[in-house]
């Protein structure tokens, strides 16, 4: 069970620049660590993040192993229309996690 | 040990315990007693204070969901303790505590497992499992900012003595006791760290080193390994006694939950 | 950061260890030299041989990172973020890591503001470089340094 936290303002005025924060529980195993017997611990990371709002990807990120575990992001977007913001994380194997948040724009 | 060493050793030990009074439960305590937050960089302090980005909240959220989860023939935690956990505000501040039914000391993990097995007809959760960490972090978060208020219980006196002895005994290749660093040298730097007073008031804590939330017992394991001593098992009687001693030694220090430490 | 008032107490043997450790800390805290080869290759892979000019990109790292596993970074790019003048991409590089690429962020006029915060892993003290690509193809960069310290009780 992967826990996700989102911070999106519930309301905004059209044209406002709003800050969005997203946090997801994930070990982001870099592939550079070694276990107690010296064996390499295999890489297991989220490689992509997307925020889709008003039918458009308004922000995206490519992650490499140097992004910390439980990756945190803060970015900005303009409030355009009321509706749903979709957030999607994709890992190196193509597994995805999604969550949504609603915004009312006046 | 050679007999002639005994007297200076006893004097030294007595000096270590210089603030002990005739009261049975007196514990030596650094003054002023401050939380480990004091010894962190501003950025780490800010991360702990951040109500959104503190990664420990991922476990608080998970714990809140587990708290509400129902199963067939098994009441949820919320059915007794309230949907918002209201019935457990203050619980973390008074644990470890003497358990009346089993006649032993229990910490929060032990109490949760007791409830799960006896009252919820569910399996006990393994120490340091994600679910148990989530529940302890959630429940400790309910007591956020409350002062540590563990009452020294006469029935748990043996545990207090064991905890105190452990804290003051040198161990490991480095031959250091907890008190060497955390009572005698707190505030000094060791490598890049400033040594804290070792209270444990911020646990379960998100340690940057672990990249995860972890329990106080896990921290004890790291401390013991850090001085190259054999660590004890998570949930062991020794660590429970040490946890009890620390809670009394750290009395009135506010709980930080979820804590963030390096 | 405020230091608590330290009560005077007799010097103990542990202070010898602290002294040795502080010396070790001094050695570990040496500012890292950028490895130009690795960094240049990583930037070329993304941007070809286009000129990267210094400016317009503000990078903020803590002066001391008490754990390399989680270093907060803030990036602000000076851009009006209009349809005709905006940041298209922001790329973060850590020259002293095993891999120089840290993250790439895709922006656009809808971003409103080119400000990003995240947390990254750094393998040692270094200057982290950030390159911003504008919609007109121009490249701008900024950097900041941090000292990555080692824990007291290293559990290795």
Structure description:
The complex is a heterotrimer of chains A (106), B (262) and C (156). Chain A has strands spanning 4-7, 11-12, 17-24, 46-53, 56-63, 72-78, 83-91, 96-105. Chain A is mainly β. Chain A has a 5-stranded mixed beta sheet, with no helix packed on it. In chain A, strands 1-3-6 form a 3-stranded antiparallel beta sheet, with no helix packed on it. In chain A, a hairpin with a 4-residue loop joins β7 and β8. Chain A starts with a strand and ends with a strand. The relative contact order of chain A is 0.31. In chain B, the strands form 3 sheets. A 3-stranded mixed beta sheet of chain B has the order 6-5-7. In chain B, β1 and β2 form a beta hairpin. Chain C has 156 residues and is α+β, with helices and mostly antiparallel strands. In chain C, the strands form 2 sheets. In chain C, strands 1, 3, 5, 6, 8 and 9 form a 6-stranded mixed beta sheet that branches. Chain C has a 3-stranded antiparallel beta sheet with strand order 2-4-7, with no helix packed on it. The two termini of chain C are 28 Å apart. The relative contact order of chain C is 0.23. Chains B and C meet through α2, β3, β4 and α9 of B and α1 and β3 of C. β6 (72-78) of chain A pairs antiparallel with β7 of chain C, so a sheet runs across the interface.
Compact overview of the structure:
Chain B is mainly alpha-helical. Chain B has helices spanning 3-16, 42-49, 56-68, 77-81, 108-119, 130-142, 157-168, 178-182, 216-226, 237-249; strands spanning 97-99, 104-106, 189-190, 193-194, 205-207, 212-214, 259-261.
Structural class of chain A: mainly beta
Number of helices of chain A: 0
Number of helical segments with 4 or more residues of chain C: 2
Q: What oligomeric state is this?
A: heterotrimer
The pLDDT mean of chain A sits at 96
Q: What share of the residues of chain C lie within helices?
A: 10-25%
What number is the mean pLDDT of chain C? Answer: 83
Sketch the major β-sheet of chain C: 6 strands, mixed
Radius of gyration of chain C: 20 Å
For the record, give the distance between the C-alpha atoms at the N and C termini of chain C, rounded to a whole number. 28 Å
Report the sheet-strand fraction of chain A: over 45%
Question: Helix amount of chain A, in percent?
Answer: under 10%
Strand order of the largest sheet of chain A: 2-8-7-4-5
Gross morphology of chain A is elongated
Total DSSP E strands of chain C = 9
């Amino acid at each position: 069970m992967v826990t996700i936290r989102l911070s999106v303002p519930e309301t905004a005025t059209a044209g406002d620049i709003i800050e969005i924060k997203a946090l997801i529980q994930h070990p982001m195993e870099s592939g550079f660590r070694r276990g107690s017997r010296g064996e390499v611990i295999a890489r297991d990371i989220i490689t992509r993040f997307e925020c889709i709002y008003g039918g458009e990807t308004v922000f995206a990120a490519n992650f490499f192993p140097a992004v910390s575990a439980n990756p945190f992001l803060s970015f900005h977007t303009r409030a355009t229309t009321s509706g749903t913001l979709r957030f999607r994380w994709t890992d190196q194997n193509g597994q995805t996690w999604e969550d949504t948040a609603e915004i009312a724009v006046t | 040990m050679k007999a002639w060493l005994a007297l200076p050793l006893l004097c030294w030990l007595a000096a270590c315990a210089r603030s002990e009074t005739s009261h049975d439960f007196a514990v030596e305590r650094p003054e002023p007693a401050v939380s480990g937050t004091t010894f962190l960089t501003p950025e780490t302090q800010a991360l702990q204070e951040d109500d959104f980005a503190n990664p420990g909240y991922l476990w608080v959220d998970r714990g809140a969901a587990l708290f509400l989860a129902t199963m067939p023939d098994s009441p949820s935690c919320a059915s007794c303790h309230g949907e918002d956990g209201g019935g457990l505000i203050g619980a973390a501040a008074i644990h470890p505590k003497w358990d009346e039914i089993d006649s032993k000391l229990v910490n929060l993990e032990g109490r949760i497992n007791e409830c799960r097995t006896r009252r919820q007809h569910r399996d006990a959760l393994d120490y340091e499992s994600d679910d148990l960490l989530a529940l302890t972090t959630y429940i400790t978060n309910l007591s956020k900012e409350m002062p540590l208020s563990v009452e020294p219980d006469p029935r748990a006196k043996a545990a207090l003595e064991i905890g105190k002895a452990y804290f003051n005994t040198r161990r490991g290749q480095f031959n250091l006791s907890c008190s060497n660093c955390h009572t005698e040298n707190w505030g000094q730097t060791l490598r890049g760290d400033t040594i804290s007073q070792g209270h444990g008031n911020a646990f379960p804590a998100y340690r940057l080193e672990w990249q995860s939330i972890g329990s106080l017992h896990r921290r004890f394991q790291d401390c013991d390994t850090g001085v190259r001593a054999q660590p004890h098992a998570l949930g062991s009687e020794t660590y429970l006694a040490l946890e009890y001693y620390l809670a009394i030694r750290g009395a009135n220090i506010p709980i930080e939950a979820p804590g963030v430490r390096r | 950061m405020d230091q608590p008032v330290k009560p005077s107490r007799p010097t103990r043997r542990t202070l010898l260890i602290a002294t040795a450790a502080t010396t070790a800390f001094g050695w570990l805290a040496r500012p890292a030299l950028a490895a130009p080869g690795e960094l240049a290759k990583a930037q070329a892979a993304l941007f070809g041989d286009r000129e990267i000019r210094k400016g317009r990109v503000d990078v903020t790292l803590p002066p001391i990172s008490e754990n390399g596993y989680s270093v907060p970074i803030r990036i602000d790019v000076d851009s009006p973020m209009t349809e005709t003048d905006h940041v298209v991409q922001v790329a973060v590089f850590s020259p002293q890591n095993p891999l120089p690429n840290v993250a790439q962020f895709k922006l656009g006029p809808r971003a409103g503001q080119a400000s990003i915060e995240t947390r990254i892993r750094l393998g040692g003290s270094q200057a982290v470089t950030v390159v911003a690509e504008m919609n007109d193809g121009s490249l701008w960069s900024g950097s900041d340094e941090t000292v990555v310290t080692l824990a007291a009780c290293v559990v290795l």
